[in-house]
């Protein structure tokens, strides 16, 4: 049963990642109004007439619906068959955030929403994805479950300071993600032309779209610095092979995220803009997942 549940959890996690990316595609292509103000139907139909915007929007709704049933099924199986505290927490949070992001999506269709509220939609989708990812990892590897005997007998080599740094970076990364989503939903991407300078200035005037993009760049730079500190600390101390591997990949991913942000800037007004934006969203989802995994690894092993 555990093997079957683990496979189902991985399928659910991959599905949630697909929902996340498809949601980004809806936003980037301006397809959120592709089904009008109808929900869950599309322009009053179960199978809508073909237009590109309706196809993108309705495909996102369809996949989200299937994913919702998968999340619910995994949640029920975990509660009934796998009564481990961490697994129950992750299954419950996956179900909660899936419901929240679905409700926000429905509300956005029915009534106009402000950019700050719309940005939360991506943030909750990201939390739903991370919850399914951690659930799959916990089911696959019992050593990840807090309080397990094997972990308790392992020498404590991770300092409390390192653990606090990891979790602070995790929270801060979510803030950076939110600001990035806010940039998209306010259509501010063109506020800064050029990279790394903003409209030819090192520190431009912090107003309007220019200010929003510049604040996001500063926040992303600080995130790069924090993850570099984590990678350096893990390399200089005996943090464990698994932790060192995840910190390395976190640093690779944040480096790629910075470069993909530059790609988005240079692609403005070209046919590459959509591709650049999708790559940017894909990498940040992977980075947030890696930081979440690292947080679980260090949670129960600090001095």
Automatic annotation (TrEMBL):
The annotated pathway is: Porphyrin-containing compound metabolism
User: Is Membrane tagged as a keyword?
Assistant: yes
Database matches in InterPro entries: COX15/CtaA_fam (IPR003780), COX15/CtaA_HemeA_synthase (IPR050450)
One Gene Ontology MF term: oxidoreductase activity
According to its UniProt record, what is one Pfam family this protein matches? COX15-CtaA
| GO BP term, example | heme A biosynthetic process
Protein location: Membrane
PANTHER family xrefs: HEME A SYNTHASE
UniProt name for this protein: Heme A synthase
Protein source organism: Paenibacillus psychroresistens
The upper taxonomy is: Bacteria, Bacillati, Bacillota, Bacilli, Bacillales
